[in-house]
Amino acid sequence: MKIPQDKLIKGDASISLQNVTISYGDFDAVRNIYCDIPRGKVTALIGPSGCGKSTVLRAINRMNDLIPSCSLKGRILFEGTDLYHPTIDPVEVRRKIGMVFQQPNPFPKSIFENIAFGARINGYTGDMDELVEQSLRKAAVWDECKDKLNESGYSLSGGQQQRLCIARTIAIEPEVILMDEPCSALDPISTLKIEETMHELKKSYTIIIVTHNMQQALRVSDMTAFYNAEVLEGVSGGKVGYLVEFNETETIFSSPSQKLTQDYISGKFG
Ligand SMILES: Nc1ncnc2c1ncn2[C@@H]1O[C@H](COP(=O)(O)OP(=O)(O)OP(=O)(O)O)[C@@H](O)[C@H]1O
After folding, report:
1. How far away, in angstroms, is 55 Cα from ligand 1 center?
2. Does this model's pTM top 0.95?
3. Which BP terms in the Gene Ontology apply to this protein (predicted)?
4. Would the ipTM clear 0.85, i.e. be above it?
């Protein structure tokens, strides 16, 4: 597959959103997003419900392609490649840009097969025992799984299942991991474990996380994008989301440049 390159991406950006508008039918869920997401860091997407965080996240690995009414204008570049160019295979995009969902969703298979299945489909021919162990180790769930690899993935706790899903994503060797509120179904201890795992993972992967939990954004992310949504005159169907401010997490939480950001992080709305 010949991949068109584009020189417009900045040196340390892995993903570049360039004037991205995403619509469901006639309704623009988010408009005119520009954002360069750096490589090897954790970037958090925060903002009130309905501002389009998940819509933007799903656009980055073309998951929105699965929603017939959803369309995208503008460009999303990944390492300089236009992800929406007609020659690009969305399945290949999802291999390079993996995703972990809100609810842990292991396959109805053994713990071992949860890892091996996807790797095999993606053509992995190396030592499967080694891959399974390494993936579970990187997702910090090896110790809990090593003596029960042949048991069902469902035999694990919710937090362990989520780390199994992270291991499954890692096994495919993506470059970017998207996480859509990965801890919202988990207890505080499991949440902490996932957060610790993220600190390790960012040494090898670019991570983008949607979170409602501002403390979590502060704890795990290097960069934060704050989105908001507004009713626009002449637009029917709901509020239109937009990116208010994108900066280092420390700056967003200590001295944001926009009053709206300050109001949001201090709990005045949302
Ligand atoms: N499949 C869909 N079809 C039609 N509209 C959708 C669809 N998914 C999302 N929307 C709309 O797009 C807008 C943005 O939704 P999205 O889920 O991306 O926001 P969000 O910021 O992630 O919200 P939350 O924090 O509540 O999960 C909302 O107005 C929502 O109703």
Report:
1. 6
2. no
3. phosphate ion transmembrane transport
4. yes
